[in-house]
Amino acid sequence: MPRLRPQQAVKRPKPLSYSRNKPVARKQADGVSQSSAAKLVKPKVVLATGNLNKAAEVMPCFAEVTLMMQSEFAIDPIEETGGTLIENAILKARYACEQTGLPAIGDDSGLFVPALGQLPGLFSARFAGQGATDQQNCEKLLALAEPFKGEERRASYISTVVFMRHAADPLPIIVTREWAGYLHDRIEGDSGYGYDAVFYVPEFGMTAALLNFEQKQTLSNRLEAFNALVPQIVNTRP
């Protein structure tokens, strides 16, 4: 009797595996694309100031933000009753948020002279009285500082900027920057504002009011503060 050959095993194709993660991966990819699209929309932010010189100086910082001036909403400036630059900046930002319903930036700055007990400081804009001109403020400062020599004439521009997402924001973003220099012995230059005509910049051997636009952009404490703040606004927490 012939011997039967054992039947050879039939090779069957393995069933295709199904990954339950594929739908999840698809959703994740969709989320990434939606997130990228969202970043293309520039956030709207109100700048809480009526100072056009200040606004013009910081405008180049806002390429990724739609900046709206407080004046566009016919909002009167709030009284600066804070005891520090930070308090005043928060007051301005919170008030702009309340009045517009939008995120807002408030700022406060001043010229601080240690030998004068940090005056004019918080009173920089009204040092010679309410409604005083830049010329009057500079003249009063030079008169008070006349006895000072050398290092006694050290002075610093200090700016603080605050970003608030809404009026009740418990974690505002705060940035402070300083520009150190000296008081000049006279008013010199007319291209700046505030105390620029008496703020001597040793790096260039002249007052801030004699610097050209490019030179001032490399040193401005206000510009440094806004340059540090804006990226945080663009990437702000949800």
Care to describe what's here?
The chain is an alpha+beta fold and 238 residues long. It has one domain: Alpha-Beta Complex (Maf protein). Strands 1, 2, 3, 4, 5, 6, 7 and 8 form an 8-stranded mixed sheet that branches. β3 and β4 form a beta hairpin. The longest helix has 19 residues. The chain is globular, with a radius of gyration of 29 Å. The chain starts with 20 loop residues before the first helix and ends with a helix. About 9% of the residues have low confidence. One of its GO terms (cellular component) is cytosol. One of its GO terms (molecular function) is ITP diphosphatase activity. It comes from Thiomicrospira cyclica (strain DSM 14477 / JCM 11371 / ALM1) (Thioalkalimicrobium cyclicum). Keywords: Hydrolase, Magnesium, Metal-binding, Nucleotide metabolism, Nucleotide-binding.
State the CATH architecture: Alpha-Beta Complex
Secondary structure class reads: alpha+beta
Total separate domains:
1
CATH class: Alpha Beta
Order of helices and strands: HEHEHEEHEEEEHH
The CATH topology is what?
Maf protein
Q: Write down the overall geometry.
A: globular
How is the topology of this model organized?
Layout: H1 21-39, E1 44-47, H2 52-58, E2 66-69, H3 85-100, E3 104-113, E4 119-120, H4 134-145, E5 154-164, E6 173-183, E7 199-201, E8 206-207, H5 213-219, H6 221-234
Parallel strand pairs: 1-2, 1-3
Antiparallel strand pairs: 3-4, 3-5, 5-6, 6-7, 7-8
Question: Any descriptors?
Answer:
238 residues; alpha+beta; Maf protein; 6 helices
